[in-house]
Design goal:
Elements lengths: L12 E14 L2 E2 L3 E2 L3 E10 L2 E6 L2 E7 L2 E9 L6 H4 L3 E4 L2 E3 L7 E11 L3 E20 L14 E7 L12 E5 L5 H12 L11 H8 L14 E9 L4 E5 L6 E4 L9 E7 L2 E7 L6 H8 L6 E2 L2 E4 L2 E2 H6 L4 H9 L1
Parallel strand pairs: 16-18
Antiparallel strand pairs: 1-2, 1-3, 1-10, 4-7, 5-6, 7-12, 8-9, 10-11, 11-12, 11-13, 14-15, 14-17, 15-16, 17-18, 19-20, 20-21
Helix pairs in contact: 4-6
Amino acid sequence: MRLTWDALSDRLFRTGVDHGVLYVETIDGYLPGVAWNGLTAVNDETAGHDKNFLYSGDYKSDVRFTPFEHGGTISAFFYPDDFEMCLGNIETAAGLYATGQDAFSFGLCYRSMLGDAVQGVKRGYELHIIYGAYITKYDVSNETINSDGAPQPMSFSYESIPVEFTDMEPTAHIVISTLRANPNKVAAIERILYGSEEAYPRLPMPDEIYSIMYDPDDIIIPDYPEGTLHYGTIHVTDENMTVTIDGSDDTTPATSAIVVEDGDRVIVLLKDGLATVMENVSKPVDPEVIRSYIELLDKPRIEGVELLGDKTYEELNLAGVTNSELERMLNS
């Protein structure tokens, strides 16, 4: 199917913030949530994920990344009483606060609206859930009342400590999009977050959210175009070879001239219902192995098999070197 641009329903944008809820964290867990009235903005910022390259044979052979670190700033005209504890302001008597005390960490949820050129801001929303946040700096201005009488906004910088999420890296930020999620399950999550007639509002952990949200029938399997490259995981048995392309639960028949083992991460070319392995990401070929045979590429052909010294292409393939890789090295 040919790509199209600028369809009215595809002109998405994000705006606004509402339905803020604060959950103060204590040694016994998170306290029941309280509504955050006056919330004007939550700006998420991601740090970390620095690259550390590994070298082999004078070339980059792999890369490792440091974990993402989630933080940001919260802006508000005011905040709920419970937030004083998160600022290190402890109430020692009714209305008497001692500042500069040990601050409590907290959780937060809020919505950001999703709109398009057809439905405006009613297209949907994203439900954001933040865990293990703690204030690192805040700015509260007290200024004289001027002619317009505008209230003074406050700004709070925060960082966060991620929590466990089974089969995933620990995370401090969960996002639920109503454009894709089952609306009944979103409603079930919101009943937990916002409370109901039967229960106080509380902060569910990622595993609980997943247990409610996950349903194989809700997964949208991408319709991958033919002749395109994709990342995936290879599956090798005595009978066949298949690959699970990222974003899909289905397997696709696969073939490979590169040495692969069950569970390897690969890049495949998808065409005519067959996935051809183009690169083994889990076990990249050492360029030195290829370079050592370049000078032997002019050896004669014998019975259709090109000899490289005492190595044939087939033997090199078993070592993880393919014809295309040799030719690529030769032409580089």
